[in-house]
Design brief:
mainly alpha
């Protein structure tokens, strides 16, 4: 019973967190892949345009945008794929604000107002946002590892495993088998459309009376009268049994008695 309660609690907890957790996980994976793609595009652009000090400002703007936004989006994806607490989500929000502020400030001031202290503001905001995101991801992973390997967690897991006994497991198996048999019996359906009507014999409606039929064996009766002409007996069950035995004895072959040569010679001369 306790095992069933634990399983029900786990199922309810998974149902509460499954939709939100799966949505955040897949969103984080999408952000992570998008960040990698932007970094690859920035690297290809550097090699293709051969960026140097005198390169076109628009090309430099595009490449820096690829790298800057790619790193931020990649870090955001990592944070979304990790289980976060309240403080973790607060740090994630702060990192997003700093990163978005630095990227927007760079896009607005690169060509016209790209000078100090604007450059310092952009760099400080970007580094602060990126470090906040990466630090939050690292801290969340470290905290999760510490909690999972804590003595309380291991003792709780051992306590749960010790509560299961062989009798409980056998009882659960028997209950599962009974439920499956009941469900299978309920699902049984017989097709009685093409069946023929049932014919009931006369024995089902009888009054359980016994009918006796007298045997008529004329040959046996004649043989009995021939062997014993003066004896009369009421013909019935006893007479039939006795007559059957007499018939069997009459038809049975008698064994031959061996005689010696001396007796045979004596009997022959005696007859003469």
């Amino acid at each position: 019973m306790q095992r069933d309660k634990i399983q029900e609690n786990n199922i309810e907890a998974e149902k509460k967190l499954s939709r939100r957790g799966e949505l955040i996980y897949y969103t984080g994976a999408l952000f992570f892949i998008s960040g990698i793609i932007l970094l690859i595009l920035g690297t290809i652009s550097i090699m293709f345009f051969q960026i140097h000090y005198e390169s076109d400002s628009q090309v430099v703007l595009n490449i820096v945008s690829f790298f800057g936004s790619g790193l931020i989006i990649l870090s955001l994806g990592i944070n979304l794929m990790i289980k976060q607490g309240k403080k973790g989500y607060a740090a994630l929000l702060i990192g997003i604000i700093f990163s978005a502020f630095s990227i927007i400030l760079f896009l607005l001031n690169y060509q016209k107002n790209w000078y100090y202290p604007t450059i310092s503001y952009v760099l400080i905001s970007y580094i602060a946002g990126l470090m906040t995101l990466m630090g939050n991801a690292f801290g969340s992973i470290t905290l999760w590892l510490i909690r999972s390997n804590s003595p309380q967690a291991t003792a709780k897991a051992k306590k749960i495993t010790r509560e299961y006994s062989d009798e409980e497991i056998e009882r659960d198996i028997e209950n599962a088998v009974k439920k499956s048999l009941e469900l299978a019996a309920d699902e049984l359906q017989f097709d009685l459309i093409n069946t023929k009507p049932l014919k009931v014999g006369n024995a089902a409606f009888g009054s359980e009376t016994i009918i006796k039929v007298k045997d008529d064996i004329k040959e046996t009766y004649s043989l009995e009268q021939t062997r014993n002409p003066g004896e009369r007996e009421i013909w019935g069950g006893t007479g039939v049994d006795k007559t059957s035995n007499l018939l069997a004895n009459a038809l049975m072959e008698k064994p031959k008695i061996k005689r010696s040569r001396f007796k045979e010679f004596f009997s022959r001369h005696k007859n003469f």
